[in-house]
Write a structure and sequence with these properties.
Elements: E1 6-11, E2 17-23, E3 33-36, H1 47-55, E4 61-65, H2 83-96, E5 102-107, H3 109-120, E6 125-131, H4 139-149, H5 158-169, H6 178-188, E7 189-192, E8 195-198, H7 221-225, E9 232-237, H8 245-254, E10 258-263, H9 277-290
Parallel strand pairs: 3-4, 3-5, 5-6, 6-9, 9-10
Antiparallel strand pairs: 1-2, 2-4, 7-8
Helix pairs in contact: 2-3, 5-6
């Protein structure tokens, strides 16, 4: 574990080879932490946060690559790129790791998967961090995501990649530094002989094509309310187009054990290694554990 993590590979129920990163020790007295990334993202997004939680907070952290992302195999059937199948893959990975319960951190798509897990296997969830996602996904925000993914830029150099990301996201993330954007690019792209490539199956974008964004997207309020007994931290980027202020306020009213953080100078989704968030997340997990002792 020279870089602070080890790689873990396992087989999905349909045999597809999937990947996760593991940080920290298996014998910690704390709950393990499971990190679930966004739609086209991968386990590398959580590297700095995982180092903090595994070293400073002595937690085992497992960050997953969904099928078609990062080091997980691409699926020949793109209809399998959906939160229900991905939730099943996570449960299979946890079973292979002999993890029966954990705290979960979900960014965007990862938060939707947490809602699914709450419906099919709620006892696995001991505490929840939702990063810029809730039971209502704003259609305008989703349209923005679809617009910058199709076509996804294919820069030749890291400098071009940073410029491309700044052109799309810079206005929503004025709080970020150059080093923050460099880390983001390192997580998002992989190096190939033809330059940098987004580290996900390009056919993943095709799964968004049929969505009618002129109408409100289906909400997940029943699934969210089923999480009411689980300590929850909701993080929102102040400039987010996906999670509205109104939805966050409704989440406060409908969940009896919720804490919230608004991250100034960031949009969808806040970088969890910035702005004091690692310490805030670690402290939330400590408070959640105390409630069960």
């Amino acid at each position: 574990m020279a870089e602070g993590f080890s790689d873990f590979f396992y087989a999905a129920p349909d045999g597809l080879k999937l990947h996760a990163r593991i940080h920290g020790e298996t014998n910690s007295d704390h709950w393990p932490v499971v990190c679930l990334p966004g739609l086209t993202r991968n386990c590398r997004d959580f590297h700095e946060l995982a180092l903090h939680l595994s070293r400073q907070a002595a937690r085992k952290v497992v960050a997953f690559d969904y099928r078609g992302r990062g080091q997980s195999a691409y699926d020949p059937d793109i209809s399998h790129y959906n939160p229900a199948i991905e939730a099943g893959d996570i449960l299979t990975g946890l079973a292979a790791l002999e993890i029966e319960e954990a705290a979960f951190i979900g960014t965007s798509r990862g938060g939707l998967i947490i809602h699914v897990l709450g419906a099919i296997k709620p006892f696995v969830l001991k505490a929840i961090v939702l990063n810029d996602i809730g039971p209502v996904v704003e259609a305008d925000g989703f349209a923005h995501i679809r617009s910058y993914l199709d076509p996804s830029p294919k820069p030749k150099t890291r400098a071009e990649a940073i410029s491309a990301q700044l052109a799309v996201h810079g206005g929503d993330f004025p709080a970020l530094s150059v080093s923050d954007w460099e880390r983001m690019v390192s997580a998002l792209y992989r190096e190939t002989g033809e330059g940098l490539m987004p580290d996900f199956d390009p056919r993943l974008i095709d799964t968004l094509a049929g969505l009618d964004l002129t109408r409100p997207l289906p909400d997940l309020w029943p699934q969210f309310e089923a999480l009411a007994a689980i300590p929850l931290l909701a993080i929102r980027g102040a400039n987010s187009k996906l999670l509205s202020v109104e939805t966050l306020e409704q989440m406060r009213k409908r969940h009896r054990d919720i804490e919230t953080i608004t991250v100034e100078g960031q949009g969808h989704a806040p970088f969890l290694e910035t702005g004091g968030l690692p310490g805030a997340i670690a402290a939330f997990l400590d408070r959640a554990e105390l409630k069960f002792r």
